[in-house]
Amino acid sequence: MVDSYLNRLPTSWELPCCDDTPVDNEDQNFLPNFLLFLLESIWAKRLDWFFGADMAIYHTTGVNPRVPVVPDGFLSLGVERRKKSGSRSSYVVWEENGIVPTFVLEVVSQTYGGEYDKKMEIYAKLNVLYYVVYNPNFWKRDQHQPLEVYKLVDNFYQLQIGEPFWMQEVGLGIGKGINSNGGLQREVLYWYNQQSSRYQTAEELLTQYRQQFGELPGS
């Protein structure tokens, strides 16, 4: 019966890759990709994870499996780093052995997108373990904190305390930090280790090396 139902579901090739909703601030694109590129360095040798940025997630816990939810970023564990057929155009849960994302990130923009109610309900039904809302500009308007980490407990999200917050099941912490690049500084989200030390980008490590030892050998 279950196999028959799955056989009737559309494939990733038949489904749109996104919902075509334009972002209305730079952070919604930059921050998830910053986390992705950092993770590619941290987990360079691991092939059992996938991080999607502004990618549609198709699932069967909503009204219609053809209607996706599109978070700003998400992390799935225990899946192929790259599909054998190539890059994913979208994340289709029934093509990922039923594995749903463990971590989802939403960045709040000027146009409120239901991050604290509608989307929270969707992710809870989808069984996403960690739901993170980053709201650096409009947190006072929304009467929330700039960064909130929620954990799914008994089918409901509970706000977690502490920053950076260590996500045991993910093996990473999440928290704010200042990134300097090209003479510009901006607040971003970083991955942290269990000792609450943030993972550095390749550029930061290179700068640190040059400050300690001078130019790289052979440069």
Automatic annotation (TrEMBL):
Keyword Cytoplasm recorded: no
Keyword terms: Endonuclease, Hydrolase, Nuclease
A Pfam family assignment: Uma2
Keyword tRNA processing belongs to the record: no
InterPro entries attached to this UniProt entry: Nuclease_put_TT1808, Restrct_endonuc-II-like, Uma2
Domain called Putative restriction endonuclease: residue spans: 31-163
Any one GO MF annotation of this record: endonuclease activity
Protein name stated in the entry: Uma2 family endonuclease
Provenance organism: Plectonema radiosum NIES-515
